[in-house]
Design brief:
The protein is an alpha/beta fold. It folds into two domains: 183 residues, Response regulator (Rossmann fold); 123 residues, Rossmann fold. The chain is built from eleven helices and twelve strands. Helix 8 links the parallel strand 8 and strand 9. It is globular, with a radius of gyration of 20 Å.
Length: 331
């Protein structure tokens, strides 16, 4: 069995019990009452615990709404008080982690987009006996920074999947648009694409300003007549890129990473050729549930290995089924 297939098996083994538990979970992140989670299922009888979920989410990025919904559903089922905070700047994210330590939380779930900025404060957390899991970004450094597991997609592998798909479509000169320079996960995605398609160009845009994203992409496409594909690394950015492609009069195909309902509809309509879904709802749910499992029985989900939630290619043939779940906020 190859390393990749073994890790996929580990994912199935880890996720199946989580999904069984989620059958009695809440469905809107509402706090649990004394006996039932929202939706009618039973809340666990373990003592109330406090968990901090700290991400690098930028304002307006709908991807994180899905992560948060998964986390809130796990929290409702697990009798967890969930403290959610976010900041895209590494130093400020570190301050939020310190704030959680000062609040004496029972666990921390954190994204590691800027690991160098977080390593010192995460050591403080583990030295204080606070269990840490990572999610979404930072798989390669997760264990080094003290997390007992990581929930997410292998970003280099996801990028390679995109590159392979572009090659199948005969595309040779894609532009990979990175909205946050220095973000290890985004850089790995484009590196994976370039590994499969040597003609890949990288374009950096200021992700906090969609008007600038649009104008930078438009200018690049107008200056790069041979670009035959352009890749957004998040659904809101891809949707902006799609409009820029039209505005620039470019014939470049548009591909994406991640998902929201509008992007799923664009794939179903044939305007976006495909996306790579990392299943963010599972990242949120799994990270919070694993901290509860550690608290209740010392369990370590993943057995020391990352729990992969992707990549999964969604093209026009798969889009109608995915669209149903995207509208429900779980894809």
């Amino acid at each position: 069995m190859t390393k990749f297939s073994w890790r996929k098996t580990a994912l199935v083994a880890a996720v199946v019990p989580m999904l069984a538990l989620s059958a009695c979970s809440s469905t809107g992140g509402r706090p649990a009452d004394a006996g039932n989670a929202a939706g009618g299922g039973q809340v666990v009888s373990t003592p109330r615990m406090k968990v901090a979920l700290i991400t690098h989410a930028a304002p307006g990025d709908t991807f994180w709404d899905i992560v948060r919904k998964g986390a809130e559903e796990a929290a409702a089922k697990d009798n967890v008080e969930l403290l959610y905070t976010s900041d895209p700047e590494g130093g400020r994210q570190a301050q939020l982690i310190q704030q959680a330590i000062d609040q004496k939380v029972d666990g921390i779930a954190v994204t590691l987009a800027k690991p160098d900025a977080l390593k010192d404060v995460l050591k403080k957390a583990t030295d204080a006996g606070i269990p840490v899991v990572s999610l979404n970004a930072g798989e390669s450094v997760s264990a080094q920074l003290g997390a007992f597991t990581h929930f997410g997609s292998n970003e280099k592998l996801a990028g390679a999947a995109v590159g392979s798909k572009l090659s199948e479509l005969g595309l040779k000169h894609p532009i990979c648009v990175i909205q946050e320079q220095g973000h290890v996960g985004l850089e790995a995605r484009c590196a994976g694409v370039k590994e499969k398609v040597a003609g890949t160009e990288i374009l950096y845009v200021p992700g906090t300003d969609m008007a600038q994203v649009s104008s930078t992409v438009t200018a690049k496409l107008q200056a790069t007549a041979d670009a035959d594909a352009i890749i957004g690394l998040g659904a809101p950015y891809t949707l902006t890129i799609l409009k820029a492609v039209t505005g620039a009069g470019s014939k470049a195909k548009v591909a994406s990473f991640d998902m929201n309902p509008e992007l799923a509809q664009k794939i179903a309509d044939g305007e976006v050729v495909f996306t790579v879904d990392q299943q963010p709802w599972l990242q949120g749910y799994g990270s919070i549930d694993s901290l509860w499992q550690t608290k209740r029985g010392g369990f370590k989900v993943g057995g020391g290995q990352p729990v992969l939630t992707g990549p999964s290619i969604v093209d026009k043939s798969a889009a109608p089924d995915v669209l149903k779940f995207a509208k429900e906020g779980v894809r």
